[in-house]
Amino acid sequence: MAFQPDILITTPDGITLVVEAKVTLPNLERTEEDLKQYMVRMQCPIGLLITPDRLWVYRDFYTTRSPQSVQRVGEFTVKPLWRQPPPRQGAPFEMFVQQWLEDLAKQPTKELPQELREALREYILPAVTTGDVRAAHPRYS
């Protein structure tokens, strides 16, 4: 089955950020590879893998037209991001992450660890503040 992300952030110019939100990642390497291929195919500069506990940030450096140009630029514990515990079911977790992204620009980041705060500012906030956050596929509970 072809990779289908969970959340997209788009502008009139295209997809600026792609998100794979999963309660668990039984095969991180395979999921990373799928995300990288999608990012290259859709010419998307930033990708996220997120679980209730971890966040991985990817950036396409456009050095080649292959997944090798997409590099992991950060891995973080995300518990400091959540004001409430996230759901532990698929579709509710996707909706939770989408709501978090939609509200991110309004949330203070001063109390977050410095590396996470910098990653949000550099990679995620620019897409969120200039784009539309939307589900990438229908969600079923």
Please give the structural blueprint.
Layout: E1 7-11, E2 14-21, H1 28-42, E3 46-50, E4 54-60, E5 70-77, H2 90-103, H3 114-130, E6 132-135
Parallel strand pairs: 2-3
Antiparallel strand pairs: 1-2, 1-6, 3-4, 4-5
Can you describe what's shown?
This protein has 141 residues and is an alpha+beta fold. The chain contains 3 helices and 6 strands; from the N terminus they run ββαβββααβ. Strands 5-4-3-2-1-6 form a 6-stranded mixed beta sheet, sandwiched between helices. Strand 3 and strand 4 form a beta hairpin. It starts with 6 loop residues before the first strand and ends in a 6-residue tail after the last strand. The model has no long low-confidence stretch (mean pLDDT 94).
Trace the largest sheet across and list its strands. Answer: 5-4-3-2-1-6
Helix count equals: 3
Number of strand elements: 6
Secondary-structure element string? EEHEEEHHE
- Note the beta-strand portion: 25-35%
CA gyration radius, whole angstroms? 14 Å
Shape descriptor reads: globular
Mean pLDDT value: 94
How widely separated are the two ends? 20 Å
Main pleated-sheet profile: 6 strands, mixed
Helix content: 25-40%
Low-confidence stretches: none
Protein structure class: alpha+beta
